[in-house]
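The authors assume throughout that readers already know how a fold can be written as discrete tokens. A single example would do more here than another paragraph of explanation. An entry of this sort, consisting of the sequence and the corresponding backbone structure tokens, reads as follows:
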Amino acid sequence: MENLPDWAILLGNFGFPTLVAVYLLIRFEKRIEHLTDAIRELERSTHQQNGGKR
């Protein structure tokens, strides 16, 4: 391993975990957006059921 440049070692050590973290953040962002939409819809429906009272 002495022949590998320093950047290749850094990429091997940090590249994969960084890629996994970015992938998970993108997937969770979509799920959070869906949850936010569901909460807003629930708020609208409860608001309508209560006759517009908060």
